[in-house]
Amino acid sequence: MRKIQILGTGCPKCKKLAENAEAAAKELGIEYQIEKVTQINDIMKMGVMMTPALAIDGEVKVAGKVASKEDIKAMLS
After folding, report:
1. Annotation says 63 is catalytic
2. How far apart are CA 74 and CA 8, in angstroms?
3. pTM recorded for the entire structure
4. For a FRET experiment, which of 23, 44, 54, 58 has its CA 20 to 30 Å from that of 72?
């Protein structure tokens, strides 16, 4: 199972990133779990200074922008 983390405080961009990540995982047909990391301290512990950010299996893949569904599919593959 892949662990997908959305790092952000719940802004519209964070929600869009979460939607894109979920759509990408569903299209690939993989088992996944989405976790929203909303506490600033937790986000900073992961080395992220700009949100929204996306981490897959604990590794930050993108920060400071909303990754597209196609980009996320490539990261998950």
Report:
1. no
2. 22
3. 0.95
4. 44
Residue 13 structure tokens: 């961009």
Domain ranges of the chain: 2-76
Tokens standing for residue 19: 């939607």
**What are the tens digits of pLDDT across the range 23-59?**
999 999 999 999 999 999 999 999 999 999 999 999 9
CB atoms within 10 A of CB 24: 23
The answer to whether residue 51 is catalytic is: no
The domain made up of 2-76 is a member of CATH 3.40.190.150:
no
d(CA 60, CA 65): 12
Residues 30 and 76: their CA atoms lie apart, in Å, by 9
Q: Of these residues, 11, 28, 34, 74, which one is catalytic?
A: 11
